[in-house]
Amino acid sequence: MQISSMYHVFVSLMVILLIGLPFVSLAQQNTIQSQAIADAEQDVSTDVNGTLWFLGGCLGNITVIIIANVIEPTPPASRLLGKSPEYIATYTDTYRAKATNLQSSRALAGCITGTAVCCVGYSFLFIAAVNESSNSNYYWY
């Protein structure tokens, strides 16, 4: 029983296609995901007001940190129009995670700064009170 060479060519082509197509699809999906992640990170840095969260942390302390961790900002829907479902899912997940992380870190930095400023202020008041009491004309026997 002899197999023609056309049969070998056909089988070889099918094997190459079966092995190669998933890699092409995976490469395209990774490209979409990496583009969505890059876009989300760039948009978070422009959308989230880090200064406001820092000042909130300075003034509100732990309450603002809790709020920053609870609130998950959502990206504007206009940025997602015409995009693939994979892009939308990756972009939205990355946007929420990065925005929450940025809010929390800025609020925590503000809380630490505000606490340090309060400690320094109270230490100056304590030193002033000690100096005032030592400079008084009262003598203790």
Describe the structure.
The longest helix is centred in the last third of the chain and has 50 residues, at 85-134. This protein has one domain (7-133). It is built from 4 helices and no strands. The mean pLDDT is 79. The chain has helices at 5-47, 50-60, 62-70, 85-134. The termini are far apart. The protein has 141 residues and is an all-alpha fold. It is rod-shaped and about 115 Å long.
Give the low-pLDDT segments.
Answer: none
Continuous helix count: 4
Averaging pLDDT over every residue, what do you get?
79
Q: How many structurally independent domains?
A: 1
Helix content: over 70%
Termini separation: 124 Å
- Outline type: rod-shaped
Sheet with most strands:
none
SSE topology string: HHHH
Radius of gyration: 31 Å
- Give the structural class: mainly alpha
DSSP strand content: under 5%
Features:
141 residues, mainly alpha, 80% helix, rod-shaped
Give the topology:
Layout: H1 5-47, H2 50-60, H3 62-70, H4 85-134
Helix pairs in contact: 1-4, 2-3, 2-4, 3-4
Short description:
80% of the residues lie in helices and 0% in strands. The chain has 141 residues and is mainly α. The radius of gyration is 31 Å and the shape is rod-shaped.
